[in-house]
Amino acid sequence: MNTRDLDYFRKLVEKRNYTEVAEIFKVSQPTITQAIKRLEKEFTTKLVQVDRVHQKTEITRTGYLLFEQSLSIQKSLDLAHKEIEAANSKKIKFGLPPIIGTLYFPQVVGEIAKTNLLDKLNIFESGSHTLFNQLESGDIDIAIIGSLLPINNPNFKAIHLGTRPFSLIVSSDNPLAQSKEAIDFKDLGDQKFIDFAGQFIHGQILHDYFEHTGISPEIIQQTPDISWYKSLIRADIGIGILVRDEINKYDENITCLEIKNPIPENFNISIVYRSDYILKDEEQLLVSILKEIAVDNISSDHY
């Protein structure tokens, strides 16, 4: 089967006009007609019905079935092209969420540099949801991903590195900072919150807490930038949620508070790549470094 025939067929399903499809591909109309006939012969079915009286082109049920399957075929072919192109390159298309980048990556960058991998990393920085989509499409091949639960998806190979807890973070000038006990999240309905804009795990966990405790506090500001997020907290514009040890000794005037009624979700960190993707040597080395450093730094027993 000629995949070009499938290209013509998909466009015909969309346009329902042989002449228009021929113009798009810059071929003759008989070329499109012959392509459809070859597909109908291949699958022993009628894919297209032409009503010449009413000048209408209709797609049969089996035509729609082939159309849907051809989308998957095209997706697989596109992915194959990207993977083969990447295989011929020494570059590693590596996804990294901003928070994990500041929290975890500085611990491993020295080891990566020792193996001459650092100059081979082509880093794509985005939220974990976006990185999943980029992994699936082949725009990146490997990533460190944050998730609220351990990843269990047959389409991806996930190597769990560890878990970090969430904490409520407030300005040290906020009255909540004086609390000596864990904070009951249900009592925060009258507080103003800072939210993460975009598809970030921290934005999701915040709203999960809202739903879990039945409160609807005011979102005073949204930002996709971790530095600006902490600046807003520091200035007591609002309060928020972060992975506990994202707040370090350099984050002055920010206090971490334990949540009295935590929900059963934590910040899980995993190395993720497509389940049918074959790691090249450089990527295998990168994974081994990430796993080795994680034993000491992201172990769930660390807490």
TrEMBL record:
- The residues covered by the HTH lysR-type domain are 1-60
- InterPro entries listed in its UniProt record: HTH-type_LysR_regulators, LysR_HTH_N, LysR_subst-bd, WH-like_DNA-bd_sf, WH_DNA-bd_sf
The keyword GTP-binding appears for this protein: no
One MF term in GO for this entry? DNA binding
Cross-referenced Pfam families, in alphabetical order? HTH_1, LysR_substrate
Family annotation (SUPFAM superfamilies): Periplasmic binding protein-like II, Winged helix' DNA-binding domain
What does the UniProt keyword field contain?
A: DNA-binding, Transcription, Transcription regulation
Return the GO cellular component terms, semicolon-separated: cytosol
What family does this chain come from, according to its entry?
Answer: Belongs to the LysR transcriptional regulatory family.
Q: What's the name of the protein? A: LysR family transcriptional regulator
Native organism is Companilactobacillus ginsenosidimutans
